[in-house]
Specification:
By secondary structure, the chain is mainly alpha-helical. It folds into 4 domains: 81 residues, no CATH class; 92 residues, no CATH class; 75 residues, no CATH class; 105 residues, Orthogonal Bundle (Arc Repressor Mutant, subunit A). The chain contains 18 helices and 12 strands. A 3-stranded mixed β-sheet has the order 1-3-2. A hairpin with a 2-residue loop joins strand 11 and strand 12.
Length: 394
């Protein structure tokens, strides 16, 4: 047999390859003859192919060549029913179908699919389907005959719907699915089973649980990338926030954390929130931090003076007077705590802070190499300048 297979050649592409060339069967040869006749009548590609007169082991076909050769456009397939060649009888096919193939649709496929078993759309019961499958697999004559089903008349009502299953494991999965469908209990209007504890907790949540507990948003982008939400360990987070409870117990984040079952957050939001709590840590203040605190309080006092006298009462002051008022306030605050620090401040830096604080509410006017601070739109002339020199105020 192996010696014969060595001589097999593809009649379509004229190439020999014993490992890839499949020998003709009666059904495949008849199908090729019908296809060749249509191609010759319409002068289509492969119309010059020479087919053997009968089945032999010397001539065969490649699987892909067979698929290309038997593939026809829809307009040419309509002529299949009018072409008659000697074909295998179909009476045996109908008698051995066990009424499983009541609704069959002919599907044109490659030889691989044609050699696979046929699966009915509406099997009567699971055991009948299995019996029919075993019969198809164990009867070679029936398998060869089924290969020629697509040449039968489409008007035959007994072959309206056929579904070709590619492999046997897929067929077994389909049969198992049918068995499960047949034995499924009917749905009743009764309450469903009690969910698992984790699932029950999810049911108790509101729709707002799918947002970050810190930023209250579902989506966040960092450097162009979406940051996904993840579930926090509630107990671990509460333990982390415990040292700051007196500062956080009235905040929305802490209240939500206490009342929620499932807490979600962005990783970046969690890190930023935990880092922001460092301001509550009781750390000893350095000289630098003390100096910043005194300067901040002194600047607030100067701003209060400007609000009352310049913005509200429309008075003018030398800028040097405001700087002196600021430095003296810093010294006073440090002395109250028994400390002495350097209170000098740069004029440019102090002016920049005032501009940032008040914007267009203040005007800085330079006259006789001295800077005067006044309300917006106030014009300073020589007379007003002399009054400022006398009283340092207008």
């Amino acid at each position: 047999m192996f010696e014969k297979m060595k001589c097999v050649s593809c009649v379509i592409c004229k190439q020999k390859d014993a490992r890839k060339v499949n020998p003709f069967t009666k059904s495949t040869l008849n199908k090729c003859k019908i296809t060749l006749k249509i191609r010759q009548e319409n002068n289509l590609k492969y119309c010059d192919v020479i087919l053997p007169s009968e089945v032999s082991f010397k001539e065969g076909y490649h699987r892909q060549c067979y698929a290309n050769f038997t593939s026809l456009k829809k307009q040419y397939k309509q002529n299949l029913s009018t072409i008659s060649l000697e074909s295998p009888p179909t009476s045996d096919i109908l008698s051995r179908s066990y009424q499983v193939f009541e609704n069959i649709e002919v599907v044109q496929t490659t030889p691989e699919l044609e050699d696979s078993v046929l699966f009915p759309d509406n099997p009567p019961t699971s055991y009948q389907v299995v019996e029919s499958i075993e019969d198809v697999q164990m009867t070679p004559e029936y398998e060869d005959s089924v290969l020629f089903l697509d040449n039968l008349s489409r008007s035959d009502e007994s072959f309206e719907n056929i579904e070709i299953v590619k492999t046997e494991p897929q067929l077994e999965e389909s049969v198992n699915y049918i068995n499960n469908q047949d034995h499924q209990p009917e749905v009743q209007d009764s309450p469903g089973p009690t969910p698992e504890p984790a699932t029950a907790d999810l049911y108790a949540l509101s729709e707002n649980t799918n947002v970050c507990i810190f930023c209250t948003r579902a989506r966040r982008k960092v450097k162009g990338k979406h940051i996904p939400l993840f579930s926090l360990e509630k107990d671990a987070l509460i333990n982390t926030l415990q040292p700051y409870k007196e500062f956080l117990e009235n905040t929305t984040v802490y209240k939500t954390l206490q009342s929620s079952v499932d807490v979600k957050a962005h990783r970046n939001c969690r890190v930023e929130y935990i880092n922001s709590l460092r301001m509550y840590n009781n750390k000893p203040k350095t000289e630098y931090h003390k100096k910043l605190e005194y300067r901040d309080k002194a600047f607030q006092e100067v701003c209060f003076f400007i609000d009352e006298n310049i913005v509200k009462d429309k008075k003018c002051f030398f800028f040097s007077f405001l700087c002196q008022y600021y430095t003296e306030t810093v010294k006073k605050l440090a002395a109250e705590n028994g400390e002495e620090i350097d209170s000098n401040v740069g004029a440019a830096f102090f002016q920049q802070k005032l501009r940032k604080k008040y914007g267009d509410l203040l005007d800085f006017t330079l006259m006789h190499h001295k800077k005067i601070v006044g309300p917006k739109g106030r014009q300073i002339d020589e007379y007003l300048y002399s009054l400022i020199q006398e009283k340092n105020i207008v």
